[in-house]
Specification:
By secondary structure, the protein is α+β, with helices and mostly antiparallel strands. About 20% of the residues lie in helices and about 45% in strands. It comes from Gordonia caeni.
């Protein structure tokens, strides 16, 4: 499994996931840059994602939804890209969305940094999410963020191998 470490730092409102992939940095970056590839791994395997808008350019708003296969219910989300240094760094705000992909009231927003570095013939990815408060972090942890993010990241090697 690619996920090698998960660290929760409640004092600093931070969740960090580390993963190692059997692919070069550029290949991992390409997965995040291509919405059709990203759809295959954004979210847990049982709740597939569809990106509506996607462009890794600072200031661009990306939108997506995840569809519950049993109920058909759509869970919307958005990113606001804040920094890009291809192929090694991506920063964005990530939040839950309403029907029109606007920030959902009462739902937390995280500031995310994804760093990709060459490591032992592959890529080490460090995914860091910072929340506004310990309560916001706890809210996503209670929603199963660690399990959902880990299962999503653990799908990546299979997509990279294609």
């Amino acid at each position: 499994m690619p996920v090698t470490d998960v660290t929760t730092d409640t004092e600093n409102c931070r969740l960090t996931i580390t993963a190692d992939f059997d692919a070069p940095v550029q290949r991992v970056w390409d997965l995040y840059a291509d919405p059709r590839q990203l759809e295959q791994v954004w979210g847990p395997p049982e709740v597939p994602a569809t990106f509506v808008d996607h462009d890794l350019v600072p200031g661009v708003r990306c939108t997506y939804y995840m569809t519950d296969p049993t109920t058909g219910e759509k869970y919307r989300g958005w990113w606001l890209i804040t920094a890009v240094e291809a192929p090694s760094y991506l920063a964005f705000d990530d939040g839950f969305g309403d029907e029109d992909f606007n920030p959902a009231p009462g739902m937390p927003v995280s500031k995310n940094e994804y760093r990709f570095t060459a490591a032992e013939g592959g890529t080490r990815a460090v995914y860091t999410s910072v929340y506004d408060s310990p309560e916001a972090l706890q809210q996503v942890l209670d929603m199963g963020m660690i399990e959902g993010a880990s299962s999503a990241i653990n799908q990546i090697d299979a997509v990279l191998a294609r």
